[in-house]
Amino acid sequence: MPRATLRLTTPHAPAVLGALSPEVGRDIPRTQVELIHEDGDIILNVEASDLGALRAALNSYLRWIEVSEQISSMVGEHNG
Fold it and tell me: What's this model's pTM, rounded to 2 decimal places?
């Protein structure tokens, strides 16, 4: 089974994890996803039955992470 593990460092890790936690519980066909907060980083583990499913899951999660990061950054600028 194809697998990918990404470690992402961001000052907004708790907010990003909070935004993505509901997505981890959803069924994405042919994939299993794990999201961990470790040492201030986000670790995304994706395992899929084939490369197409792995690519699709990674694309989705990376887009969601990017959007969450942008929103957290904008909110932080206005609250700071």
Answer: 0.84
